[in-house]
Amino acid sequence: MAEMSSLDKYRFRRDLEEIEKATGRGTELVTVYVPPDKQISDVANYLRGEYSQSSNIKSQSTRKRVQGAIESILQRLKVYRQPPANGVVFFTGHKATEADQTQMVAFVVEPPEPVASFLYRCDSRFYMEPLHEMLVEKDTYGLVVIDQGEATLGLLRGKRIETLKNVQSLVPRKHRMGGQSARRFERLHELAIHEFFKKIGDLMTEAFLTRELRGILVGGPGYTKEQFAGGGYIHHELVKKLLTPSFDVGYTDENGLREVVEAARGTLKHLDLMREKDLMQRLMEEIRKPDGGLATYGEAQVRRALELGAVETLLVSEGLRRARAKLRCGNCGHEIEATIEDGKPLDPCSNCSEDKMAVQDRRDLVVEFTERATSMGTRVELVSRESEEGELLLRAFGGLAAILRYRVE
Ligand code: ZN
Predict the structure, then answer these.
(1) Tens digits of per-residue pLDDT, 219-242?
(2) How does residue 255 score in pLDDT terms, banded at 50, 70 and 90?
(3) DSSP structure class, residue 332
(4) In percent, how much of the chain has pLDDT > 90?
(5) 78, 179, 182, 378: which has the highest count of C-beta atoms within 10 A?
(6) How many angstroms separate the alpha carbon of residue 350 from the centre of ligand 1?
(7) Helical H runs in 209-317?
(8) 356 Cα to the center of ligand 1, angstroms
(9) Residue 52 domain-assigned?
(10) Phi, psi of 153, deg, nearest 5
(11) Domain boundary among 86, 101, 134
């Protein structure tokens, strides 16, 4: 897949904003994610199943709207013989408008990255999480596997491996041609290898130099990869990014790319932890400054900074077990929005003091903050609990902190 330009990202983000603004009066907004390898006929069959299921919905108006939404997707499916390259996502339903009215909306999104799995959801909101996930900046590594006969270049993006180029070399096999002297053969052989390495070095420059790579993994069978990596064939800016030592793998084709990622798993994990440490140290440095520096933490503070667009990097702990919820009192009908903690009882109603608050709508806090940030173009870092610093983020800062672009009073 081609990398998304920042303008594409912006447009995509704006589309998502438009879609997520819609809320249903009831559980009646339908979302369908279709991965690229799914048969359209299977999707249609599935939807027809959901259509007949929906005849059980008690509220007549909700039932009609859900069925209308499913029908609308079934209509739209007819345009496709097969899903587009990255799959397709449908959002249809009646969104609530003023004065108890509703309006039918339908969005069709062909996403910038492949849809991972089929999903049908009927809810009071459209389900956006997988699309937001595509906007989160992912770590990218360059990949090269090489021996004397072949080389393959690729990228590791998040957990996905992309092949960029596969090149066969013209290096002659070890058999001498009749009449050639051993010395002459040796010289030609060396020369061919030199040319091949040079070519791969140039391809690396072309493919990697303009990208923001966190590192480059080189792998291959035997000693060739070391000869290549240490032989001055790689652009000096890229040499700085080589993860050493290089990795022993058996293949030099696409399988080799997968192998090298597998072999480097420990190294990559270590780099992740190092980065978390670095980020947390940056945060701590800011916090320690007498004026509070360019940092803030805690749910309310971070939420406000995000709304102001003041956040450069949002740090979210993966250990956060809270949700943002709409609560409604069963006694007096009082409604509030509040953050609730998994497994903790809800507070009594602030209006009538009865212990009758019930959750109407609930969104995981990690998801809520991540979506809020990505929709504004803010970088999000999910921080594990595996380092001391990661634990600190959860325990001392409530699992949410931000490095700021400017100070927020
Ligand atoms: Zn109440």
Answers:
(1) 999 899 999 999 999 999 999 999
(2) very high
(3) T
(4) 61
(5) 378
(6) 7
(7) 224-230, 236-239, 254-263, 265-288, 299-307
(8) 7
(9) yes
(10) -110, 145
(11) 134
Please say whether the beta carbons of 404 and 282 come within 8 A. no
The H or E element containing residue 192 is: helix 182-208
Q: What is the domain extent for residue 395?
A: 274-324+361-404
pTM over 0.90: no
Domain boundary among 114, 134, 154: 134
Distance from residue 401's CA to the centre of ligand 1 (Å): 33
Tokens of 62: 């909700």
CATH of the domain at 203: 3.30.420.60
The answer as to whether 153 is a domain residue is: yes
Ligand 1 centroid from CA 331, angstroms: 5
We report the CATH number of the domain holding residue 278 as 3.30.1330.30
> Among 320, 317, 324, which residue's Cα sits nearest to residue 363?
324
pLDDT at 179 over 80: no
Residue 284: how many CB atoms within 10 A of its CB?
16
Q: Say yes or no to pLDDT of 209 above 60.
A: yes
